[in-house]
Amino acid sequence: PWNQTSLGANKNAGKIRWILEHSYPQIDDLSALAKSAETGPLTEKTAAAGTQVAIWRYSDSADVDASDPAAEKLADWLEKSAQDAPEPKASLTLEPGAVSGKAGEKLGPITLRTDAAGVTVTPPADAAASGVRITDKDGAPVTTAANGTQLYFDVPSDAADGTASLGVQATTSVPVGRAFAGVTKSQTQILAGSSESTVSATATATWAEQGAIPAVAAQKNCAEGGVDITAANKGDEPFVFELKGTEYAVPAGESKTVTVPVGEDEAYDFTITGPAGFTQNFKGVLDCLTTGDSGPVTQQESSQPLPASAGGSSAAATDNLAATGSSSATPVIAGIAIALVVLGGGAVFLLRKKNAATSSTPGE
User: Fold this and answer.
1) Which residues contact 245 (CB under 8 A, 6 or more apart)?
2) DSSP 141
3) Where are the alpha helices (DSSP H) in the chain?
4) Which pLDDT score, from 0 to 100, does residue 260 have?
5) What's the maximum distance between 2 C-alpha atoms anywhere in the chain?
6) Which of 42, 108, 158, 249 could form a disulfide with 30 if both were Cys (CB 3.0 to 4.6 A apart)?
7) 74-78 contacts at long range (C-beta below 8 A, 24 or more positions apart)
8) Distance between CA 351 and CA 364 in Å, rounded?
9) Smallest Cα–Cα separation from 159: which of 186, 124, 201, 192?
10) b or e along 225-262 (b: 16 or more beta carbons within 10 Å of the residue's beta carbon)?
11) Average pLDDT, the chain
């Protein structure tokens, strides 16, 4: 979501999405686009350059022009015309991602959020042996679901203490405007065009007969400059866990959120330990700002754009949008053909800077 990237603190994030929806590659009729913007003839490259310039003006407050006159006119038109557009909804999520309780209960609910017409639900890998089923609130088995469906782990009363996970998968289109942040250090990118894609999500459940029964999740907190670790305890005893050398206690039936400070662009790797061998690890990179100051700015001008793609390619989209960084840092979505636009002017494609002091950190 935007609030876990540089878009979360950007008051113009909605305008960036409007630009994506009203320019190349979403609008691939270049004659119509040129007519609307009164630019004169546009090519894929000049349309991409104009789109990227307009985005950087809002993502970085960058003082930047396109060197091509038609691209510059397009950038000016997009910048002046942009209106706030809402954040796109996720293609597929499970909320919450972790639940807990006692054996003999239905653990949940876990709510499915999706824009897909139908979703396949995969039961735990050892379901046949453990007897754990994925059901609705009435206990009926669920193998397919739709937006808003509530899922439960139905755990047999004689099940040994343990954990299980369920998976959901769908074929859908990832909405333009979704943000991508790598698990390693990389510039945030935003989706500019997409095709049908296979997306997936998972959720876990923990159960026990007695004692503490934790469900632990982590989420970036850009507003506080850190990572929120939230532990819920559905057991009958306090859940005591250790995080970065500090011990915390969550009373029975309650939850606690601990915000761990993390520096911008800093990698985090937290291992949470608790009683009975409980351990859970969370890792990633805090990426909340568009720009940084890790090194000098380098300007590239090339007749060949830098492609950005993940899991596929699109001749009309990925060949003509500026990008930085390695595609290996972008989450791979199976079967997708997309174009990603950089938030942060690390690569300059058919562009020139008005002011050398105003720019962005180069991509990794």
Assistant:
1) none
2) B
3) 13-21, 30-37, 44-59, 69-81, 127-130
4) 93
5) 73
6) 42
7) 74/23, 74/33, 74/34, 74/37, 74/39, 74/42, 74/46, 74/47, 74/50, 75/49, 75/50, 75/51, 77/36, 77/37, 77/38, 77/39, 78/19, 78/22, 78/23, 78/37, 78/50, 78/51, 78/54
8) 20
9) 124
10) bbbebbbbbbbeebbbbebeeeebebeeeeeeebebeb
11) 79
What's the rounded Cα separation, in Å, for the pair 218 and 228?
Answer: 6
> What string of DSSP letters covers 133-172?
EEE-TTS-B-SEE-TT-EEEEE--TTPPSEEEEEEEEEEE
Q: Which residues of 76-95 are buried (b: 16+ CB within 10 A; e: fewer)?
A: bbbbeebeebebbebbbbbe
pLDDT tens per residue, range 244-279: 889 999 999 999 999 999 998 888 898 888 877 788
Tell the burial category of 322 from Cβ atoms under 10 Å away from its Cβ (0-12, 13-18, 19+). buried
Task: Tell me, rounded to whole angstroms, the distance of Cα 163 from its chain centroid.
Answer: 26
DSSP 50: H
Q: For residues 291 and 220, which has the higher predicted lDDT (pLDDT)?
A: 220
Measured in residues, the chain has a length of 364
What is residue 32's three-state secondary structure?
helix
Q: Is-cis flag, bond preceding 109, omega within 30?
A: yes
Q: What percent of the chain has pLDDT over 90?
A: 45
Interatomic CA distance for residues 151 and 154, integer angstroms: 9
Per-residue pLDDT tens digits for 45-100: 999 999 999 999 998 888 889 999 999 999 999 999 999 999 998 889 999 999 99
Could you tell me the end-to-end alpha-carbon distance of the chain, in angstroms, rounded to an integer?
Answer: 22
Mean pLDDT of 293-301: 32
Contacts of 153 (CB under 8 A, 6+ apart): 99, 106, 107, 108, 124, 132, 133, 134, 164, 166, 205, 207
Contact status, residue 135 vs residue 177, Cβ threshold 8 Å: no
Would the pTM of this model clear 0.85, i.e. be above it?
no
Tell me the C-alpha distance between 335 and 171, whole Å.
Answer: 9
User: Within 13 Å of residue 39, how many CA atoms lie on the same side as its CB?
Assistant: 28
